[in-house]
Protein backbone atom coordinates (compact mmCIF):
# COMPACT_ATOMS: atom_id res chain seq x y z
CA UNK A 1 0.00 0.00 0.00
CA UNK A 2 2.95 2.42 0.34
CA UNK A 3 3.12 4.89 -2.53
CA UNK A 4 6.90 4.74 -2.79
CA UNK A 5 6.69 0.97 -3.17
CA UNK A 6 4.07 1.37 -5.88
CA UNK A 7 6.34 3.89 -7.59
CA UNK A 8 9.26 1.42 -7.49
CA UNK A 9 7.32 -1.26 -9.38
CA UNK A 10 5.78 1.25 -11.80
CA UNK A 11 9.26 2.57 -12.56
CA UNK A 12 10.50 -0.99 -13.05
CA UNK A 13 7.83 -1.59 -15.67
CA UNK A 14 8.73 1.55 -17.62
CA UNK A 15 12.43 0.69 -17.52
CA UNK A 16 11.76 -2.87 -18.71
CA UNK A 17 9.59 -1.78 -21.65
CA UNK A 18 12.11 0.88 -22.73
CA UNK A 19 14.86 -1.75 -22.66
CA UNK A 20 12.78 -4.08 -24.83
CA UNK A 21 12.09 -1.28 -27.33
CA UNK A 22 15.77 -0.36 -27.52
CA UNK A 23 16.68 -3.99 -28.17
CA UNK A 24 14.13 -4.47 -30.96
CA UNK A 25 14.61 -3.80 -34.66
CA UNK A 26 11.38 -2.02 -35.57
CA UNK A 27 11.90 -2.68 -39.29
CA UNK A 28 12.11 -6.44 -38.77
CA UNK A 29 9.18 -6.70 -36.36
CA UNK A 30 6.92 -3.64 -36.70
CA UNK A 31 3.96 -5.40 -35.06
CA UNK A 32 5.90 -6.13 -31.87
CA UNK A 33 7.22 -2.57 -31.92
CA UNK A 34 3.67 -1.20 -31.88
CA UNK A 35 2.75 -3.58 -29.04
CA UNK A 36 5.71 -2.34 -27.00
CA UNK A 37 4.88 1.30 -27.73
CA UNK A 38 1.38 0.73 -26.38
CA UNK A 39 2.83 -0.95 -23.28
CA UNK A 40 5.15 2.02 -22.81
CA UNK A 41 2.23 4.42 -23.06
CA UNK A 42 0.25 2.49 -20.43
CA UNK A 43 3.19 2.03 -18.08
CA UNK A 44 4.14 5.72 -18.28
CA UNK A 45 0.53 6.71 -17.58
CA UNK A 46 0.55 4.49 -14.49
CA UNK A 47 3.90 5.93 -13.38
CA UNK A 48 2.59 9.51 -13.69
CA UNK A 49 -0.59 8.59 -11.80
CA UNK A 50 1.45 7.21 -8.88
CA UNK A 51 3.74 10.24 -9.01
CA UNK A 52 0.70 12.53 -8.86
CA UNK A 53 -0.51 10.77 -5.71
CA UNK A 54 2.95 11.05 -4.17
CA UNK A 55 3.01 14.81 -4.79
CA UNK A 56 -0.45 15.18 -3.29
CA UNK A 57 0.81 13.36 -0.19
CA UNK A 58 4.26 14.93 -0.01
CA UNK A 59 3.85 18.56 -1.19
CA UNK A 60 0.08 19.25 -1.11
CA UNK A 61 0.50 22.95 -0.21
CA UNK A 62 3.46 23.56 -2.54
CA UNK A 63 1.93 22.37 -5.79
CA UNK A 64 2.22 24.71 -8.74
CA UNK A 65 -1.12 26.36 -9.56
CA UNK A 66 -3.18 24.65 -12.26
CA UNK A 67 -5.64 27.54 -12.59
CA UNK A 68 -4.53 27.93 -16.21
CA UNK A 69 -6.47 24.76 -17.09
CA UNK A 70 -9.66 26.84 -17.19
CA UNK A 71 -8.22 28.49 -20.32
CA UNK A 72 -8.01 25.20 -22.21
CA UNK A 73 -10.75 23.99 -24.58
CA UNK A 74 -12.96 21.44 -22.81
CA UNK A 75 -12.07 18.66 -25.24
CA UNK A 76 -8.44 18.79 -24.06
CA UNK A 77 -9.28 18.27 -20.39
CA UNK A 78 -9.00 14.48 -20.42
CA UNK A 79 -7.54 12.04 -17.91
CA UNK A 80 -4.47 11.25 -20.00
CA UNK A 81 -3.46 14.87 -20.70
CA UNK A 82 -0.36 14.52 -18.52
CA UNK A 83 0.81 11.46 -20.42
CA UNK A 84 0.26 13.26 -23.70
CA UNK A 85 2.43 16.13 -22.43
CA UNK A 86 5.22 13.69 -21.58
CA UNK A 87 5.00 12.10 -25.04
CA UNK A 88 5.05 15.56 -26.64
CA UNK A 89 8.17 16.52 -24.67
CA UNK A 90 9.93 13.32 -25.79
CA UNK A 91 9.02 14.02 -29.43
CA UNK A 92 10.25 17.62 -29.22
CA UNK A 93 13.55 16.52 -27.73
CA UNK A 94 13.93 13.99 -30.56
CA UNK A 95 13.31 16.73 -33.13
CA UNK A 96 9.80 15.62 -34.08
CA UNK A 97 7.34 18.52 -34.13
CA UNK A 98 3.88 17.01 -33.88
CA UNK A 99 0.93 19.23 -34.78
CA UNK A 100 2.98 22.47 -34.70
CA UNK A 101 5.32 24.66 -36.70
CA UNK A 102 9.01 23.85 -36.52
CA UNK A 103 9.79 27.31 -35.13
CA UNK A 104 7.33 26.81 -32.26
CA UNK A 105 8.78 23.38 -31.57
CA UNK A 106 12.31 24.76 -31.48
CA UNK A 107 11.25 27.33 -28.88
CA UNK A 108 9.63 24.65 -26.73
CA UNK A 109 12.54 22.22 -26.94
CA UNK A 110 14.51 23.71 -23.98
CA UNK A 111 11.42 23.41 -21.78
CA UNK A 112 10.93 19.82 -22.94
CA UNK A 113 14.57 19.00 -22.14
CA UNK A 114 14.30 20.53 -18.65
CA UNK A 115 11.08 18.62 -17.97
CA UNK A 116 12.46 15.24 -19.02
CA UNK A 117 15.71 15.78 -17.09
CA UNK A 118 13.65 16.69 -14.04
CA UNK A 119 11.55 13.55 -14.46
CA UNK A 120 14.68 11.40 -14.62
CA UNK A 121 15.96 13.02 -11.45
CA UNK A 122 12.61 12.41 -9.72
CA UNK A 123 12.66 8.76 -10.78
CA UNK A 124 16.21 8.31 -9.46
CA UNK A 125 15.53 10.04 -6.14
CA UNK A 126 12.22 8.27 -5.49
CA UNK A 127 13.67 4.92 -6.47
CA UNK A 128 16.52 5.34 -3.97
CA UNK A 129 14.09 6.54 -1.31
CA UNK A 130 11.80 3.55 -1.88
CA UNK A 131 14.74 1.20 -1.28
CA UNK A 132 15.96 2.95 1.88
CA UNK A 133 13.09 4.65 3.74
CA UNK A 134 9.79 4.04 1.91
CA UNK A 135 7.74 5.67 4.68
CA UNK A 136 9.22 9.19 4.58
CA UNK A 137 9.84 12.11 2.25
CA UNK A 138 13.00 13.98 3.30
CA UNK A 139 13.73 17.50 2.08
CA UNK A 140 15.79 16.47 -1.01
CA UNK A 141 12.80 14.43 -2.22
CA UNK A 142 10.43 17.32 -1.66
CA UNK A 143 12.74 19.70 -3.52
CA UNK A 144 12.93 17.60 -6.70
CA UNK A 145 9.15 17.03 -6.63
CA UNK A 146 8.45 20.77 -6.34
CA UNK A 147 10.78 21.48 -9.27
CA UNK A 148 9.24 18.76 -11.45
CA UNK A 149 5.70 19.94 -10.67
CA UNK A 150 6.59 23.50 -11.68
CA UNK A 151 8.37 22.48 -14.89
CA UNK A 152 5.50 20.18 -15.87
CA UNK A 153 2.91 22.93 -15.40
CA UNK A 154 4.98 25.48 -17.32
CA UNK A 155 5.52 23.09 -20.23
CA UNK A 156 1.85 22.06 -20.30
CA UNK A 157 0.68 25.68 -20.56
CA UNK A 158 3.31 26.59 -23.18
CA UNK A 159 2.69 23.50 -25.31
CA UNK A 160 -1.10 23.75 -25.37
CA UNK A 161 -0.93 27.52 -26.00
CA UNK A 162 1.20 26.87 -29.08
CA UNK A 163 -1.36 24.43 -30.50
CA UNK A 164 -4.75 26.00 -29.79
CA UNK A 165 -6.22 29.37 -28.95
CA UNK A 166 -6.54 29.32 -25.16
CA UNK A 167 -9.31 31.32 -23.58
CA UNK A 168 -8.56 34.90 -22.63
CA UNK A 169 -9.51 36.23 -19.16
CA UNK A 170 -12.37 38.11 -20.84
CA UNK A 171 -13.73 34.92 -22.43
CA UNK A 172 -13.51 33.06 -19.12
CA UNK A 173 -15.45 35.86 -17.43
CA UNK A 174 -18.10 35.81 -20.17
CA UNK A 175 -18.58 32.06 -19.73
CA UNK A 176 -18.91 32.55 -15.98
CA UNK A 177 -21.65 35.10 -16.70
CA UNK A 178 -23.47 32.43 -18.74
CA UNK A 179 -23.20 30.02 -15.80
CA UNK A 180 -24.76 32.65 -13.55
CA UNK A 181 -27.52 33.22 -16.15
CA UNK A 182 -28.34 29.50 -16.18
CA UNK A 183 -28.42 29.38 -12.37
CA UNK A 184 -30.70 32.43 -12.13
CA UNK A 185 -32.92 30.97 -14.85
CA UNK A 186 -33.39 27.72 -12.90
CA UNK A 187 -34.12 29.66 -9.71
CA UNK A 188 -36.72 31.81 -11.49
CA UNK A 189 -38.28 28.80 -13.24
CA UNK A 190 -38.67 27.03 -9.89
CA UNK A 191 -40.28 30.13 -8.40
CA UNK A 192 -42.76 30.42 -11.30
CA UNK A 193 -43.51 26.69 -11.36
CA UNK A 194 -42.07 25.97 -14.80
CA UNK A 195 -39.87 23.34 -13.17
CA UNK A 196 -40.08 21.34 -9.98
CA UNK A 197 -37.35 20.40 -7.57
CA UNK A 198 -38.29 16.76 -8.13
CA UNK A 199 -37.47 17.10 -11.84
CA UNK A 200 -34.03 18.47 -11.00
CA UNK A 201 -33.32 15.89 -8.27
CA UNK A 202 -34.38 13.09 -10.60
CA UNK A 203 -32.29 14.37 -13.52
CA UNK A 204 -35.36 14.61 -15.76
CA UNK A 205 -34.02 14.26 -19.36
CA UNK A 206 -36.37 16.98 -20.58
CA UNK A 207 -34.40 19.48 -18.51
CA UNK A 208 -31.44 19.11 -20.89
CA UNK A 209 -33.58 20.90 -23.49
CA UNK A 210 -35.75 23.05 -21.25
CA UNK A 211 -33.15 24.86 -19.16
CA UNK A 212 -30.98 26.10 -22.07
CA UNK A 213 -34.09 27.33 -23.92
CA UNK A 214 -35.37 29.13 -20.84
CA UNK A 215 -31.89 30.60 -20.26
CA UNK A 216 -31.76 31.98 -23.81
CA UNK A 217 -35.19 33.60 -23.41
CA UNK A 218 -34.16 34.96 -20.01
CA UNK A 219 -30.91 36.32 -21.40
CA UNK A 220 -32.69 38.06 -24.27
CA UNK A 221 -35.77 39.45 -22.50
CA UNK A 222 -35.42 39.39 -18.72
CA UNK A 223 -31.70 40.21 -18.40
CA UNK A 224 -31.14 42.16 -21.65
CA UNK A 225 -27.89 43.69 -20.37
CA UNK A 226 -26.43 40.30 -19.41
CA UNK A 227 -24.18 37.92 -21.34
CA UNK A 228 -26.65 37.56 -24.24
CA UNK A 229 -27.05 41.31 -24.74
CA UNK A 230 -27.55 42.01 -28.43
CA UNK A 231 -26.46 45.60 -27.91
CA UNK A 232 -22.91 44.26 -27.97
CA UNK A 233 -21.14 43.18 -31.14
CA UNK A 234 -20.73 39.42 -31.73
CA UNK A 235 -17.02 39.81 -30.90
CA UNK A 236 -17.97 41.02 -27.41
CA UNK A 237 -20.11 37.97 -26.68
CA UNK A 238 -18.88 34.62 -25.42
CA UNK A 239 -17.72 32.25 -28.14
CA UNK A 240 -20.47 29.90 -26.93
CA UNK A 241 -23.15 32.18 -28.42
CA UNK A 242 -21.37 34.60 -30.80
CA UNK A 243 -21.77 32.32 -33.87
CA UNK A 244 -25.56 32.48 -33.33
CA UNK A 245 -25.82 36.27 -33.08
CA UNK A 246 -28.29 36.67 -35.97
CA UNK A 247 -30.36 33.70 -34.78
CA UNK A 248 -30.57 35.24 -31.30
CA UNK A 249 -31.95 38.42 -32.90
CA UNK A 250 -34.67 36.37 -34.63
CA UNK A 251 -35.52 34.59 -31.36
CA UNK A 252 -35.84 37.90 -29.54
Automatic annotation (TrEMBL):
- Which top-rank group of organisms is this from? Eukaryota
* Gene Ontology cellular-component annotations: early endosome membrane
Q: What is this protein called?
A: LST2 protein
Gene that this polypeptide is encoded by: Zfyve28_1
Q: Which organism is it from?
A: Oxylabes madagascariensis
